[in-house]
Amino acid sequence: MNPLLQPEPSLLARFAGVSTPVKPVTYAATGFGLMLFKYAGEAALIWQQTGEWIAPWRFLSPSFLFRFGDTYNALPNPELILWILALWTLPFVWVGVSMTVRRAKDAGLPSWTGIGFFLPVVNYLVMLTLCFLPSVAAGAKPDRTLRGEERVMWAALSGVLGGSVLGLGMTVFSVFVLGEYGSTLFIGTPFAMGVTGAFLLNLRQPRSLVANAAVGVLMMATGGGLLTLFALEGLICLAMAAPLAMVLCWMGVFFGYGLARWERRLAVLGSVLPLPLLGILEPAPGHTEIREVVTSVDIQASPEDVWENVIGFGGVELPPPPEWYFKTGIAYPIRARIEGEGVGAVRYCEFSTGPFVEPITVWDPPHHLAFDVQKSPPTMEEWSPYNTVHAPHLDGILQSHHGEFRLIPLPDGGTRLEGHTWYSFAMAPIVWWGLWSDTSIHLIHRRVLEHIKRVTEAS
Fold it and tell me: Rounded to whole angstroms, what are the CA distances from 3 to 7, 8, 11, 107?
């Protein structure tokens, strides 16, 4: 067809298409225009809610909460506003990455340069550079190479975004609609993400297994990034879930790779569409299984001497923890005190996240001290760029029920001090999460017992 007779591309194809070339002037004008439009929309919403304007320079931050500063705390319904802004952002993201990829191609750069759009700070440098790079003359590079590279780029991008958006949607549905952290979320969702991402990657042309595995990694990283961006999860919990999720994702990737080769579209839908229904039908993982964690230490002192320090840590505050794992946000004990004496007294154990309130149920000096847990603080403080992480599991998923210290005399005149905790954990699969919770409680026990050992033997 004569190029002069080809119809002009539509406005949608220019802004959000995948093949229409983007010239420098068009890219710059559209980019700055959309930035101003997006800023005006966000600023107007915040002004309507609080009567305050957000500063234009704050708009350059990728963090919603940093943009608002103290204004965020003045919002009448900050969670709702955060979700409105997240949904408002999605079409701008698509237009931005679409035009960046096509502008890079037009400038003779690899199409994957467009991935720089997702990298904070780097994205501004990439976009400014693309505003000034001239277009490459037709024929300067073989069209076949450009089209092939473009197909790979868009296939990988669609796979990564398709799988990660599925993961984000299932997390929101499971956690905030159903109120559950179940097997559908932690087992079914990563597998379905892998199936979806690999199917989209290989739909037009089979890619290598290495490329499929790499897309699986990028998909899980992007999904975790979205959960972090929307303040739905912190980095430590994502790291705990990552090994299990990554294995399941890769299993789904290789399954989706096979389906794409035979174009089994219905099979892909069959692995994705039932997820919400499975989440609804799955019994909520409640606090039904009581787990016991026992840790012990031998102390070169009599049970009578150890007993005095068991009650209130010897009146000495524990030093700041040097261990790296407590610096990740896991709650750790700081001090303890007891009001009263005997059964009915109340022990207060202050943690980095708040106090445990522990009424005494067994008082048998110097052998046995037991207590119930009447009130417990959050289990950890999440690593996050935000002040607040909207993750319900931080408070209530792990419940401590009972605890006790047992002082066992040793033949050499010393004492074996045992710390016991009985707790339940409402997340599935418990086989996986129980490993993390048991380990965390062991570490907390160890910190307390070693402190009692140091204080007792020093005196």
Answer: 9, 10, 19, 21
Please write the tens of the pLDDT for every residue from 127-151: 888 898 888 865 554 444 445 555 7
d(CA 332, CA 445): 9
Which H or E element spans position 441? helix 430-458
Query: What's the pLDDT score for residue 120?
Result: 64
The conformation of residue 88, written as its DSSP 8-state character, comes to H
Give the pLDDT confidence score for residue 115 in this predicted structure: 66
Question: CB neighbours of 289 closer than 8 A, spacing ≥ 6?
Answer: 424, 425, 430
Domain ranges of the chain: 13-281, 291-458
Q: Residue 330: pLDDT band by 50, 70, 90 thresholds? A: confident
Angle, to 10 degrees, between the axis of helix 265-272 and the axis of helix 189-202? 160
Instruction: Give the pLDDT of residue 66.
Output: 61
Residue 271's contacts (CB-CB under 8 Å, 6 or more residues apart) are: 191, 192, 195, 196, 252, 255
Query: Mind giving me the DSSP string for 126-192?
Result: HHHHHHHSPPPPTTSS-HHHHHHHHHHHHHHHHHHHHHHHHHHHHHHIIIIIS----HIIIIIHHHH
Place 400 in a pLDDT band, splitting at 50, 70 and 90.
very high
pLDDT > 50? residue 246: yes
Cis peptide preceding 283, ω within 30 of 0: no
Least Cα distance to 417 among 262, 330, 311 occurs for 311
Residue 381 has what pLDDT? 81
Instruction: CATH number for 291-458: choose from 3.40.20.10, 3.40.50.2000, 3.30.300.30, 3.30.530.20.
Output: 3.30.530.20
Phi-psi region of 139 (alpha: psi -120 to 50; beta: other; left: phi over 0): left
- Higher-pLDDT residue of 166, 51: 166
